[in-house]
Amino acid sequence: MTALATAPVSRLRRRQRTRAGAVVLVGMLACLVLVLVSLGMGVAGVPPDRALPAIFGVGDRFDLLVVQKLQLPRSLAAILAGIAFGLAGALFQYTLRNSLASPDLLGISGGASLGAITAILGYGATGLAITGSALLGGLATATAIWLLAWRGGLHGLRFVLVGVGISYVCASLISWRLAEADLREGGTVLLWTVGSVADIRDGMLALLAIGVGLLAVLALLVGRWLRPLALGDDHAHGLGVAPDRARLLALLVGVGLVALATAVAGPIAFVALVAPAIARRLVDDGGPALPAAAAVGALLTLGSDVLGQAAPFGFSAPVGVVTGLVGAPYLLWLLARSERKATS
């Protein structure tokens, strides 16, 4: 009887794992196609039949130069930044049980940007110093939100509302820093605040790859606590999960992912908001869908970068501009849907 009773559950779980794996696999294949498309773009583009071998170091010097030194780093940076934003968004939204709880709407990205901009304009920082400053800015912002939202426990809606307020504070401080800056330096930093992966190569790309790899492993480890956490604090306690510690660690990993990606690529808008929502709908298992969110985030960011390079309206655009154009309508739809739910 026991075996008969558990058989449907086993089949359901197997089907859910297969579906989640299929989403990740399709996302990876789509990313590969987009990489080949991006390698063939521009006046120095390399067609796919020569670009694919050149990725693995096979081809003439021209193909290797264009693929490995110019175009491929850009695509890899877009994929890595998309993974970071997608995972961070999934951790925030599932931990706080709010689909609007995205790091860029809560001010975490703004805090990381403020830290990076302060380091650049105030101290002339470069490289790792910018990354460290962005991480400190993101952590300081998250700590401020946590402390202001804490009332004997952490409530998701209060955390979101405090985060939105902090986001405006960060945006105001960034504008003030830019207004006070030298015209040339301010222009360079203003371009960085849009979000771009065009010039990420060598050391910064390696830093992004190592950091995202380590934090992604931590995200998957922390992700094991999120399902019990979603059942409520009492049930989570019963299943051996300490709720406050699990929330703190999940949000810390999310802050680390956002701060790292923001420091390297700038605050690429809306990927952390949109990617987890799409991933959860595709996987549809009631969980955080972390691997799928990473795959969708990578696909969204890379696809937006390719679209920006294609210049469909006669001019090219940084990836942050394209994701903003895609994400803003989604946010409006999400707000309208939430309002309909509240009034029904």
The biggest beta sheet is recorded as: none
Over all CA atoms, what is the radius of gyration? 21 Å
- Strand pairing plus helix content: what structural class? mainly alpha
Instruction: Estimate the global geometry from the Cα principal axes.
Output: globular
Count of helical stretches = 14
Q: State the end-to-end distance.
A: 42 Å
* Percent helix range: over 70%
Order of helices and strands: HHHHHHHHHHHHHH
Low-confidence stretches: none
Strand content: under 5%
Number of strands: 0
Describe this protein's structure.
The longest helix is centred in the first third of the chain and has 38 residues, at 2-39. With 344 residues, this protein is mainly α. The protein has helices at residues 2-39, 48-55, 61-96, 108-123, 128-149, 156-180, 183-194, 202-223, 226-230, 233-238, 243-265, 271-283, 290-310, 319-343. The model has no long low-confidence stretch (mean pLDDT 84). It has 14 helices and no strands. The relative contact order is 0.16.
